[in-house]
Design a protein that fits this description.
The complex is a heterodimer. Chain A is α/β, with parallel strands linked by helices. Chain A has a domain of 121 residues: Rossmann fold (3-Layer(aba) Sandwich). Helices cover 43% and strands 13% of the residues of chain A. In chain A, helix 20 links the parallel strand 13 and strand 14. In chain A, helix 9 packs parallel to helix 12. Chain A is globular and about 100 Å long. The relative contact order of chain A is 0.13. Chain B is of the alpha/beta class. Chain B has 3 domains: 134 residues, Nitrogenase molybdenum iron protein domain (Rossmann fold, 3-Layer(aba) Sandwich); 109 residues, Rossmann fold; 162 residues, 3-Layer(aba) Sandwich (Rossmann fold). Helix content of chain B is 45%, strand content 13%. Chain B has 17 helices and 14 strands. Chain B has a 5-stranded parallel β-sheet with strand order 12-11-10-13-14, sandwiched between helices. A 4-stranded parallel β-sheet of chain B has the order 3-2-4-5, sandwiched between helices. In chain B, strand 2, helix 2 and strand 3 form a beta-alpha-beta unit. The two termini of chain B are 33 Å apart. Classes of the chains: A alpha/beta, B alpha/beta. Chains A and B meet through helix 3, helix 4, strand 3, helix 5 and helix 6 of A and strand 1, helix 2, strand 3, helix 3 and helix 4 of B. Strand 3 of chain A pairs antiparallel with strand 1 of chain B, so a sheet runs across the interface.
Chain lengths: 530, 454
């Protein structure tokens, strides 16, 4: 019996019917067996998923360092998403909003009589104390239920205070995971921020980095490499990101999509509205980083840029060569499981492979089918009641700002070589026998640990200690266990160093007490020594 | 760091900035984790429980399990009955707990789901139990959630059979497993047969064995919760946290209770020890007297390094009051003491402590936040901060040493294993406080003033 069958048959028939669609075992490498994703979790199952608010405020909007993001709701949601995601941000002027948590801390009377008045007052107080250029309002579950019109409040605030104020209806019950929240945040940024700046068109090699949240400083490491080659980074969505930069995102000449899941909506809409092409990149892993840099150079197609790219790649690789070889020696032949996010489980397989580690189980929390199977399945994805509740917005070309870098013929030509508006997904790169699990849960994690006995497991804080207590090296891939950066060339070495550290830490050798393996009691046999 | 925080104070009536509390459900989960083979269950959308498990795991560095009803938009409109029925069935099928402890969220409270009737109507496997409590996030704080969940267990399970079990019940308050272990050690030294409820020791500080146990050895057993009704008496520790469940047990099973402060510092520990000794009719053993004497010895030895130093203390109401009491015993000035939990009793009790030690110019406030505390500090500085992780930005901004104590501490290790209660716990706090201040002296003094002997 294969591992998939063994695991699933422990479920009751109703749960089995649901989960069997979400779990596949690779039989033929490079093929797409298809998987179900982005549907409701089964109540009672300890899913690792979060909610719409977490995706909107926690993931996409939270990193904006010059925005006062007010959580409209009871205190918990704002509190939990305060400073815990490691999206680093640096402000030269010291006005860093990431150090603050703003909430309307709704009380019972606000729920009964409505919270709009309190929200208005909270905005008034924010303006008076902090004088921000931009306020964003994120709603939590009860706000949608009691019907507070946060969008009307935002319009009022714009008129009253002459600032930008944007409301996001990202109540936790919307959609089936964080993913709905990403989409809602994308829509709001597209509608209200992108394209509102009046900066002149940027220079030729200018890019936006989309879906880079600067966890542990990843975005800084990526930007360092891009700047070395000669690129201008116009804006980052949204790690170390700012409202001011994003206003002018439309002036860039190419969009780079790092986290496909959380930001592909903006990439697509900017293509339609401003004509900006996008390519899928991955700056996690050495091979992947090199390939992404080469694809960028090919997009612009200038010999000088292509040469400079090769020069920087060679120089960066030379600088880390010895360390890479050392850590390959420490990690080669190990196996790994990786359960995280909606793009990272794919990204990190590349990095693990650079060091000779094979991924035997992988899955996502909140990915859609295209993240597993590739974007060509998008037309076949069926909408359901939950996905219909997340607004889809359509944009039109903006005649004053629309520019195309490539002629249709050039585009056709380049699309053959580089991932222009393409993403092939995770499944095709996985090895025979490996398991892919969508919306993985506590039970399945435990089962898979038993069947595959991986040397390494990468997941989040909720199951980190479940895995570690099972005797398997466990590292967090959301927070990088408070280390990093792991992106780019130097980041790859940081990653390998941290993984090797966790594998070889001496405490593992003491788990079993000596008296459990050796007889400790000494005594004499009755009748003396002879 | 925090450079937008102005010195000038302005009254805020709506905006909470840098809170010093969180919402009820996380307290309910922590309480339920202190019951053996219990699965905490959150009746709401799955983001809540994701946040709570995340937060508890970050504090304890141990798995915090809990399941969810996984509400969708449809459930929010039509009610969560089907969700909880499915969830309960699946939890018993897959995770096999003995008991499920349901708490609500602001979502299910706002739509008015009647959990009690849902539980009455659902099929529960033979020998298994489902209990619930209401924890609207828009009332109180995680402290309310903690005691509301205690009340939920008591309501469903505690019964008076009429035959006393001769035991004393100890309600430990919202404290770490290390504190619960220390309270139990003291009770054992005084030969008081007891039931501690809840008891997260052996659950949230479970050892590494190489095998993960979803339900570790620790936790109050269901039959012990039932037997609370047959206890002789309750010692309810933490006057704000433990009174409601104690009062409920008294009403329901006629078990009298004695409400005491958390045993932090000398006098509060003395009160705890005295109460136990009176109950067990056991003289205080030399071992405890020795510890007490050692603590006083230390406080005399080291007093010159903290005497009259001013301190700001923030966190959960009973913990803050306990630490306030200890620092007063040390001769320090608790200049600012705040909690985010909206309980006015807190302010009154803090002011009583100020009066008892005749300290002047100290300020206490409930329903406060760290932003306001920072503003006070900007106006009049303190020498030391004591509280959880979230004060570290203030510590950095104002260059004030920080001693971590209370909840949540998500940026350090080991703390949850170590007590701050009892004489031993007080020794640990005195050590942390004096070290913080003395390290600062060593760092800041001129070369010629660096003392080799202190």
């Amino acid at each position: 019996m294969d591992e998939r069958t063994k695991m699933l048959e422990k479920y009751s028939s109703r749960v089995y019917r649901n989960r069997k669609e979400h779990v596949i075992q690779i039989e033929e490498e490079g093929a797409n067996p298809g998987i179900m994703a982005n549907t409701r979790s089964v109540p009672g199952i300890m899913t690792n998923r979060g909610c719409c608010y977490a995706g909107c405020k926690g993931v996409v909007l939270g990193p904006l360092k010059d925005v006062a993001v007010i959580t409209h709701g009871p205190i918990g949601c704002g509190f939990y998403s305060w400073g815990t995601r490691r999206h680093k941000g640096k402000c030269e002027d010291g006005r860093n909003f990431l150090e603050y948590c703003f909430s309307t801390d709704m009380q019972e009377p606000d729920i009964v009589f409505g919270g709009e008045k309190k929200l208005k007052q909270a905005i008034a107080e924010t303006v008076e104390i902090f004088n921000p250029k931009c306020i964003m309002i994120c709603s939590t579950c009860p706000v949608g239920l009691i019907g507070d019109d946060i969008h009307a409040v935002a319009s009022w605030a714009e008129k009253e205070y002459g600032i930008k104020c944007i409301a996001f209806s990202c109540e936790g019950y919307k959609g089936v995971s964080q993913s709905g929240g990403h989409h809602i945040a994308n829509n709001g940024l597209m509608r209200h921020v992108i394209g509102t700046g009046d900066a002149p068109p940027a220079k030729r090699y200018s890019v936006n980095i989309l879906g880079e949240y600067n966890i542990g400083g990843d975005g800084w490491e990526t930007s360092r490499i891009l700047k070395r080659i000669g690129y201008d980074v116009i804006s980052v969505f949204t790690g170390d990101g700012s409202y001011e930069d994003i206003k002018n995102a439309h002036t860039a000449n190419l969009n780079l999509v790092q986290c496909h899941r959380s930001i592909n909506y903006i990439a697509e809409m900017m293509k339609t509205k401003y004509g900006i092409d996008w390519i899928k990149v991955n700056f996690i892993g050495l091979t992947a980083t090199c390939e992404s840099l080469r694809n960028m150079a090919k997009y612009f197609g200038d010999k000088e840029l292509i040469d400079r790219t090769e020069e920087v790649i060679a120089d960066e690789l030379a600088a880390i060569h010895d360390e890479v070889e050392y850590y390959k020696g420490k990690l080669k032949g190990k196996t790994a499981g990786i359960f995280v996010g909606g793009s990272r489980s794919h990204h990190y397989q590349n990095l693990l492979a650079d060091f000779g580690v094979e991924t035997v189980v992988a899955g996502y929390e909140f990915a859609h089918r295209d993240d597993y199977e590739g974007r060509e399945v998008i037309p076949d994805i069926k909408e359901d009641a939950d996905s219909k509740n997340i607004e889809q917005i359509t944009v039109e070309p903006d005649p004053s700002k629309y520019r195309e870098m490539l002629s249709p013929d050039e585009y056709e030509e380049k699309a053959k070589e580089i991932p222009l508006e393409q993403y092939k997904g995770m499944i095709r790169e996985m090895k025979k026998g490996a398991m892919v699990v969508d919306d993985f849960n506590h039970f399945e994690t435990e089962e898979l640990l038993k069947y595959y006995k991986p040397d390494l497991f990468f997941s989040g804080i909720k199951d980190k200690y479940v895995i570690q207590k099972s005797g398997v090296v466990s590292r967090q891939m959301h927070s990088y266990d408070y280390k990093g950066p792991y992106a780019g060339f130097k980041g790859a070495v940081n990653f390998a160093r941290d993984v090797a550290m966790s594998l070889y830490t001496p405490a593992w050798g003491f788990v079993t007490p000596p008296w459990k393996t050796k007889p400790m009691l000494q005594g004499k046999l009755a009748g003396g020594d002879k | 760091m925090l450079s937008m925080t102005p010195k000038e104070l302005k009254e805020r009536t709506a905006l909470r900035i840098n809170p010093c509390k969180t919402c009820q459900p996380v307290g309910a989960i922590y309480c339920a984790l202190g019951v053996h083979k219990c699965m905490p269950h959150s009746h709401g959308s799955q983001g809540c429980v994701s946040f709570h498990r995340m937060f508890l795991t970050r504090h304890f560095k141990d798995p915090a399990i809990a399941s969810t009803s996984s509400f969708t938009e449809g459930a929010s409109v039509f009610g969560g009955r089907t969700n909880i029925e499915t969830a309960v069935k699946n939890v018993f099928d897959i995770y096999d707990p003995d008991i499920i402890a349901v708490h609500t969220t602001c979502l299910s409270e706002t739509i008015g789901d009647d959990i009690n009737s849902f539980i009455q109507d659902m099929t529960i496997p033979e020998g298994k139990l489902v209990v619930h409590t209401n924890t609207p996030s828009y009332v109180g704080s995680h402290i309310n959630g903690f005691y509301n969940m205690m009340c939920g267990f008591i309501k469903y399970l505690s019964r008076k059979t009429g035959k006393s079990n001769g035991k004393i019940a100890i309600f430990p308050g919202f404290v770490n497993p290390g504190d619960m272990r220390e309270m139990k050690r003291i009770a054992s030294l005084l030969k008081a047969p007891f039931i501690m409820f809840p008891d997260t020791s052996g659950v949230m500080d479970a050892p590494m064995t190489g095998h993960y146990e979803m339900y570790p050895k620790g936790g109050t057993k269901i039959e012990e919760i039932a037997a609370l009704g047959d206890c002789e008496k309750v010692i309810a520790l933490g006057e704000i946290t433990s009174e409601e469940p104690a009062a409920l047990l008294e009403k329901q099973c006629k078990v009298p209770y004695e409400l005491l402060p958390l045993p932090i510092g000398i006098s509060a520990t003395d009160e705890f020890v005295t109460a136990l000794s009176k109950f067990s009719k056991c003289e205080v053993p030399y071992e405890l007297e020795e510890e007490r004497g050692q603590l006083i010895d230390i406080m005399l030895d080291a007093h010159q390094y903290y005497y009259k130093k001013s301190v700001a203390i923030y966190g959960d109401p009973d913990t803050v009051l306990g630490i306030t009491s200890l620092v007063l015993e040390m001769g320090m000035i608790p200049k600012y003491v705040i909690t985010g939990t909206p309980k006015e009793d807190f302010t009154r009790k803090a002011e009583e402590l100020f009066a008892r030690y005749s300290v002047e110019g100290c300020k206490a406030k409930a329903s406060a936040d760290l932003f306001e505390l920072h503003q006070w500090i900007k106006n009049e500085k303190v020498d030391l901060l004591i509280g959880g992780t979230h004060g570290k930005t203030i510590a950095r901004a104002e260059d004030i040493p920080l001693v971590r104590a209370g909840f949540p501490i998500i940026d350090r290790y080991v703390h949850s294993y170590m007590p701050i209660v009892g004489y031993k716990g007080a020794m640990r706090l005195v050590e942390m406080i004096s070290n913080a201040l003395m390290d600062r002296m060593d760092r800041d003094c001129a070369d010629e003033d660096l003392e080799i002997v202190m």
